[in-house]
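REVIEWER CHECKLIST
Item 1: Sequence provided? yes
Item 2: Single chain? yes
Item 3: Sequence as submitted:
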Amino acid sequence: MRTPPETPESPLGEPEEDAGEPVSIRRIQVFNLVLTAAGTLAGLAVSRRFGLGILLGGLVMAANFKVMAAVLQSVFGKGSTNPVNIGLYWAKFAGLMLLVGVLVVKFRVDPIGLLCGLGAIFVAITAEAVFRLIGW
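Item 4: Structure as written out by the authors:
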């Protein structure tokens, strides 16, 4: 008769297999900037306003991602949830929403282009996850 394992099997693999390198924040940032540049060039083929929207969206999210990574590392890296750090996270979020609103309303940035640029970071994060899964 077979005895059951002491720990349940993980659907994502054994813990030893999952304990590889941490996610590369730097690779995500670089890939985001490459996607933003490629998207900007493609967007310029549509219109100057659309290409500018992609560029600004990508740059806004690149800055947002860098700040978010620093804030989250300070919150979770030290093992304490300092209310000031949590407040900074929400202030950053509110500032991001204000900046996007000002870009669209005041500076008339193309909203679809801006959304495309804002979405580049999610493609970069997904690509990093896939790279980790396949062992790159």
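Item 5: Key structural point noted by reviewer: The CA atoms of residues 88 and 94 lie 10 Å apart.
Item 6: Recommendation: ____
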